[in-house]
Structure formats: structure tokens, C-alpha cells
């Protein structure tokens, strides 16, 4: 007997399809991150050149996000999602091909364009499915991205430990997750035309700007914790490398757990209260990490930051998609661009401030940004799903 998503029923099949796309996106990213050292070794790159190469992904994504918003508004999110996820699967093995730094930058720039476009499009699909469901489900999609990232990182680490070549590894990843994506895109929601009077490009108004600041603050904090938590634990608190690595692990695990519970909490508390609570929990967690002086309490603090941040960005995107008079794809693109800009500038900003103060003082910026999220929580009040 043939069994597929179509037998499960609409809109469940669409929800499973979008969840699969989020998972694939996270898995691709996790596999890539795990093999960055191998790329560095293959081309003999210095830390500075590697940093410039990695910046190409971010630049590609930032450029692509607003363009993707326009394309989604005109063509719909289904086609852009399919092109983004399948294109990223094809592009990943190409990262193993370049034999020079300029060629690597070109490939990573293209990969960033595809991933940035996919990020906007899959969230637009998620918002559309959420609208059909009539209740919050966006956090569950972002949980699948986190789970995919963890699975991809574990897979990539295992392949590296086995001594697998970059080309063979990335081809296997492309085949495995490309097949899953190809199956899933068949069940995405049909594309909807832009409503009358809805612009294809969103310039944030006063209400959207507050929401964008929330997106900026939460992703600034996420990027800073990812890059600096281990340095803080090992350098400032004097822990060993194992404990230092556990800081981001605790953050990531609580981020995933929070997103799994986020939709139920959203229905129970409402988006404004949940965003305010998330910002407050993150601020308390960062305070614990910075002022306790104990590695154990610092780990608990970073876990608290992950729990607090976990629910905020999905709510931002869900709220933006319901902005009156603005196409959902355009609104999501605007929030994604502002948020991703925070993710990009957060780590170097922490490093710059640490040079003037201390790393503990610089990480206080995460405490400030978390408090700002709580203060701007009313930006999440824009109707109900």
C-alpha cells in the first residue's frame, strides 16, 4: 500500500513538510560548521582569511533576504522554498571543490544567498501553515531547525573523526537531505498572490521597527553566546575545555527544549507575556553567568539565556506575518534582515567592547539586549493567529 504525506491529510501534511524543510536547513548548516576546520586546513587559511570567507555567507544571506521577500510576494513562498533548499543541497558539495581562497569566497557567497532566501521562504510557509491551523505552531518549526543543527553537527563530527574527505561527506549529505527535501516540497502550501495594496517590499513602520529591534536584540545575543561563551568560561572563569564547550551546549539544548514547549506556552500566556518573560529569563540567566563567579552557576546561566531566547524570534516572525497591509513574505524578510544583522555584528561588537573593558563587561551587552526585549514586548501584540 502506498503511504505518503497526502494520506495524512491537509493541513497536517503541509505542517510536516515545512518541519522537514526546517530540519534539512539545520542539518545542512550543522554539517557545514563541523567541517570548517577541514576547509581551513585544506586551503591553508589563516584565521583572518577564514573569517573573511565565513563573512561571505553572512553577506550573501543579508543581500538575499530582502530580495527573497520581494520574490515571495510576487511568486509565492512555495517555489522559493523549494529552490532554496534544493539549491543549498546542491551547493554544499561545491564547498569542497575550490582550491583557492577567492573561489571559496565565491562558493560561500552563493551558499549564503541560497540559505538566506530559504530562511525567509520557509518562515513564510510556516506562517501560512500557522494561519491555516489557527493556533501558534511557529516555535515547533524552529525547534526542528535546532534539532537538525544538532543532528548535522553530530553527523559532521562523526565523519570528521572517521577521516572522511570533504567531497564524499558533503555529497552524502546532499543526497540524503536532498532526497528528504525533494519529497517534502511536494506538500508545501500553494503560493498565494499578494493582496491588493500590499507592498512587496516592507519598510518597517513604527510598530514593525519595534518588532525589528526585538529581532536584532535576540539574534545579537544568540551570536554572542555562540562565539564567546566558551571563551568566557575558559578564560575568565578558568575552566577546562570540556566545561567551556558545555556552555554553548547548555544554551543550545535549552533553546531546543524551549521551542518545543513554545507554542503551548504561547497559547497559554499570549505572545506579549511570553516575549516579556523570555527577555526576563534571558536577562536573569545572563546575570547569573556574569556575576556568580562559579562555572556551575555560569552553565546554568547560559542555559537560562537559551530558554529565554528560544521563543522570541519565532513569535517575532509570526507577528510580522500578520502585519496589516504588508505581504507576509515582505514582513518576514524585513524582520529576518534586521535580526540577522544583529547576529552578524554581535560577536565582533563583544570583542571590541572587551578590548576596552573586560569580557565580563562586554557580555553585559547581552544582559542589556535581553532587558530591551522585555521592554519592547508590546511590539508582539498584533492580533491573534
Automatic annotation (TrEMBL):
**Per its UniProt record, what InterPro entries does this chain match?**
MFS (IPR011701), MFS_dom (IPR020846), MFS_trans_sf (IPR036259), MFS_Transporter (IPR051788)
- Domain of life, per UniProt, equals Bacteria
Q: So where does this one cross the membrane?
A: 12-29, 49-72, 79-97, 103-122, 143-162, 168-189, 209-231, 243-262, 274-291, 297-317, 329-350, 362-381
Q: Where does the protein end up?
A: Cell membrane
State the Gene Ontology terms under molecular function. Answer: transmembrane transporter activity
The entry's keywords? Membrane, Transmembrane, Transmembrane helix
| Occurrences of domain Major facilitator superfamily (MFS) profile (ranges) | 14-385
Q: Which GO terms describe its cellular component?
A: plasma membrane
Which topology term describes how it sits in the membrane?
Multi-pass membrane protein
Mind telling me which PROSITE patterns this protein's record contains?
Answer: MFS
PANTHER family to which the protein is assigned, alphabetical: BYPASS OF STOP CODON PROTEIN 6, INNER MEMBRANE PROTEIN YBJJ
Name recorded for this polypeptide? MFS transporter
What organism is recorded for this protein?
Rubrobacter taiwanensis
